[in-house]
Amino acid sequence: xxxxxxxxxxxxxxxxxxxxxxxxxxxxxxxxxxxxxxxxxxxxxxxxxxxxxxxxxxxxxxxxxxxxxxxxxxxxxxxxxxxxxxxxxxxxxxxxxxxxxxxxxxxxxxxxxxxxxxxxxxxxxxxxxxxxxxxxxxxxxxxxxxxxxxxxxxxxxxxxxxxxxxxxxxxxxxxxxxxxxxxxxxxxxxxxxxxxxxxxxxxxxxxxxxxxxxxxxxxxxxxxxxxx
Length: 228
Hints:
- It is a single chain.
- The protein is mainly beta.
- The chain folds into 2 domains: 2-93, Immunoglobulin-like; 104-217, Sandwich (Immunoglobulin-like), CATH 2.60.40.
- 4% of the residues lie in helices and 36% in strands.
- The strands form 4 sheets. It has a 5-stranded mixed sheet, with no helix packed on it. Strands 2, 3, 6, 7 and 8 form a 5-stranded antiparallel sheet that branches.
């Protein structure tokens, strides 16, 4: 038996949400599950199956009628026993997705006065709607560093580098005090797709401590150990 917990987003706006699931090998047989509870993310569906692969979507139960969302998602045991979904696309996540913290335009207005005369804060806008990207890495005059990364489908993103011992929740020996999680902001097309972090690390004066990577959880293929 395989027990699965599925988190649906509040953003669906359904009054009486249900989860509809089916096995691709069985045409026409659709099963309906009601929420087992709610949390701060939205309705929670928990059920037990004999199979570890199925497809599902959410719907709003309106009397005898079910109004379905437009996405179909397919679950496999590689996601684990607890998954999260979002309303804007069909991605499935093994971790709780970050919610948007605001707009990149708001961040741009906060820091443009400490950018420095020769520092270019990118506002490249492929959408043509006046969005600010702030992509890359920028040292600011107050001693902080701004990291910017584009990813429209990630659940969470972390900055890891030799200035925080490459720490993240996926480090072999994780140290939460050294984690550098990025926040999600609305960017291109006013959609949540830009990740930003302003931090006191690394030290611009120490050239030996400026190597970094972005660690992306969700929205990317996992490695052979089922890790980002």
